[in-house]
């Protein structure tokens, strides 16, 4: 499901969802003489909720398919006539809020006991972002035993090795070629996900409640409760128990999937977009249903509840070029934090918060 980039060569196994993914995915022009140029795509059919919001504010008009479903927040919540249970809140997060969650997504969310895609290879990694700033390198200690299930040094589970630790770049050079190493900046670029609260086990595709975990940070919990309200059954409050943070670099995609591991689908998934603009595809209950494409910008929030939870969805594209990424405001806010600035200019972060039980 996640990061499924398998090239489809045979037209016959291509569903409507796959066809639309392919249409929007990043490809490079083969015969361009200049530097790699992204292939042009026709974006005229991509729904743009920012422009719907502008038009709604100006004259109260909306395209036929778009409806206002809630006015309890300080901004309209839009829905799609054909997709009950799907909610779009354009610009739900202020720029300060976006900056805060970007900072946390980089500095605090990947911290153990939260797991990341790097756990399987390197074991738990602490302070990755600080190590990037300090130009450190993660180095393997070959004298440490592999796969020891030791509680004392923070290792959990036996795929976590704890053989790896951060060192100064110079000290690695002096050790020579013999030991395996990887720079912190490469690890940050290859960070694809981290999990908060109850830890999701990708190999078994379920929540593993026995893995050590912290509660979802309180402020994120409060924010998710507020944002989830339009999609909650009357009189009930959303209970955030787990969150998945997805990190996208240029060319990364999130293949079409369903989030079906939570017990109660009447509860929404609260999904926040940060950083570069992306295209989100919302399909139907079958991969054969042609999906709708829409832009997701930094600060947008999407809710999926009820019937919409049975709809295939994914992210075939993020935009990292200056014109389409729309990160200028964020860049101004991070002008004194060069490492965050460099990261967010060409990356997207998605935080999606779930009630599991
Ligand atoms: C997910 C998901 C959407 C996004 O993580 O399950 O659907 O906007 N993310 O990245
Ligand atoms: Mn999903």
UniProtKB/TrEMBL annotation:
<comment type="similarity">
    <text>Belongs to the alkB family.</text>
</comment>
<dbReference type="GO" id="GO:0008198">
    <property type="term" value="F:ferrous iron binding"/>
</dbReference>
<keyword id="KW-0408">Iron</keyword>
<feature type="binding site">
    <location>
        <position position="259"/>
    </location>
    <ligand>
        <name>Fe cation</name>
    </ligand>
</feature>
<feature type="binding site">
    <location>
        <position position="313"/>
    </location>
    <ligand>
        <name>Fe cation</name>
    </ligand>
</feature>
<feature type="binding site">
    <location>
        <position position="257"/>
    </location>
    <ligand>
        <name>Fe cation</name>
    </ligand>
</feature>
<keyword id="KW-0479">Metal-binding</keyword>
<keyword id="KW-0560">Oxidoreductase</keyword>
<dbReference type="InterPro" id="IPR005123">
    <property type="entry name" value="Oxoglu/Fe-dep_dioxygenase_dom"/>
</dbReference>
<dbReference type="GO" id="GO:0035513">
    <property type="term" value="P:oxidative RNA demethylation"/>
</dbReference>
<keyword id="KW-0223">Dioxygenase</keyword>
<dbReference type="InterPro" id="IPR004574">
    <property type="entry name" value="Alkb"/>
</dbReference>
<dbReference type="GO" id="GO:0035515">
    <property type="term" value="F:oxidative RNA demethylase activity"/>
</dbReference>
<protein>
    <recommendedName>
        <fullName>Fe2OG dioxygenase domain-containing protein</fullName>
    </recommendedName>
</protein>
<dbReference type="Pfam" id="PF13532">
    <property type="entry name" value="2OG-FeII_Oxy_2"/>
</dbReference>
<feature type="domain" description="Fe2OG dioxygenase">
    <location>
        <begin position="239"/>
        <end position="357"/>
    </location>
</feature>
<dbReference type="GO" id="GO:0035516">
    <property type="term" value="F:broad specificity oxidative DNA demethylase activity"/>
</dbReference>
<dbReference type="GO" id="GO:0005737">
    <property type="term" value="C:cytoplasm"/>
</dbReference>
<dbReference type="InterPro" id="IPR037151">
    <property type="entry name" value="AlkB-like_sf"/>
</dbReference>
<dbReference type="InterPro" id="IPR027450">
    <property type="entry name" value="AlkB-like"/>
</dbReference>
């Amino acid at each position: 499901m996640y990061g499924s980039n398998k090239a489809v060569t045979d037209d016959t196994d291509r569903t409507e969802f796959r066809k639309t993914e392919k249409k929007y995915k990043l490809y490079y022009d083969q015969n361009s003489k200049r530097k790699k140029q992204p292939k042009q795509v026709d974006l005229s059919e991509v729904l743009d909720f920012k422009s719907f919001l502008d038009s709604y504010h100006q004259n109260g008009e909306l395209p036929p398919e778009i409806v206002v479903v809630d006015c309890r927040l300080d901004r309209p919540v839009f829905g799609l006539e054909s997709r009950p249970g799907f909610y779009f809140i354009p610009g739900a997060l202020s720029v300060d809020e976006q900056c805060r969650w970007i900072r946390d997504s980089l500095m605090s969310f990947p911290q153990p006991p939260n797991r990341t895609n790097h756990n399987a290879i390197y074991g738990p990694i602490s302070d990755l972002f600080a190590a990037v700033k300090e130009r450190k390198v993660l180095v393997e200690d070959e004298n440490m035993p592999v796969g020891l299930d030791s509680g004392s040094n923070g290792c959990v589970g036996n795929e976590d090795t704890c053989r790896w630790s951060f060192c100064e770049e110079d000290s690695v050079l002096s050790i020579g070629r013999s030991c395996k190493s990887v720079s912190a900046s490469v690890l940050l670029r290859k960070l694809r996900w981290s999990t908060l609260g109850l830890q999701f086990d990708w190999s078994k595709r379920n929540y593993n409640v026995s893995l050590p975990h912290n509660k979802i940070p309180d402020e994120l919990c409060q924010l998710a409760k507020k944002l989830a309200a339009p999609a909650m059954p009357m009189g009930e409050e959303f209970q955030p128990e787990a969150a998945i943070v997805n990190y996208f670099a240029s060319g990364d995609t999130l293949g079409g999937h369903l989030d079906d591991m939570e017990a109660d689908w009447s509860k929404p998934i609260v999904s926040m977009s940060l950083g570069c603009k992306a295209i989100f595809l919302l399909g139907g209950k079958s991969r054969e249903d042609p999906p709708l494409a829409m832009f997701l910008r930094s600060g947008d929030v999407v809710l999926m509840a009820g019937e919409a939870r049975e709809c295939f969805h994914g992210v075939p594209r993020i935009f990292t070029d200056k014109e389409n990424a729309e990160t200028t405001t964020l860049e101004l806010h991070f002008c004194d934090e060069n490492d965050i600035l460099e990261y967010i200019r060409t990356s997207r972060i998605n935080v999606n918060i779930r009630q599991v039980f």
